[in-house]
Amino acid sequence: NVTVQNLHITADVNAIGGIAAINNGKIQDCSVDGTIRTTGMNVGLIAGKTEVEHGEISNCSVTGKVCGSSVVGGIAGQASTVDNCTVNCTVLGSYSIGGVVGELNAGKVMN
Fold first, then answer.
1. Whole-angstrom Cα distance, residue 84 to residue 30?
2. Between the chain's N and C termini, which has fewer beta carbons within 10 Å?
3. What is the pLDDT of residues 11-70, one digit of tens each?
4. pTM greater than 0.90
5. DSSP of the chain, one letter per residue?
């Protein structure tokens, strides 16, 4: 369980998140409130990306703003499984953007 408040990240990198840049396991019961701005891709307030077969994000919530060039989502820029998460944020990017996930890889968004 992690709570991050008043997060402010400005960077010129790929794969950036408030909890993890790249998730190869399970992130659960976390919340992030803040802003991430980057010129890179794979950006989310919880994780920049999750690995196709190994990454899962569940029972998390985000508020704030996330901005990137592409593959940008409120929870994760690129993800495989997202379950029971809530999003209340602004998501900005050029393409592959979504309120929950920018790109979904071989998985699902539930609840």
1. 12
2. N
3. 999 999 999 999 999 999 999 999 999 999 999 999 999 987 778 999 999 999 999 999
4. yes
5. -EEEEEEEEEES-SSEESSEEEESSEEESEEEEEEEEESSEEEESSEEEE-TTT-EEES-EEEEEEE-SEEEESSEEEEEEEES-EEEEEEE-SEEEESSEEEEEEEEEE-
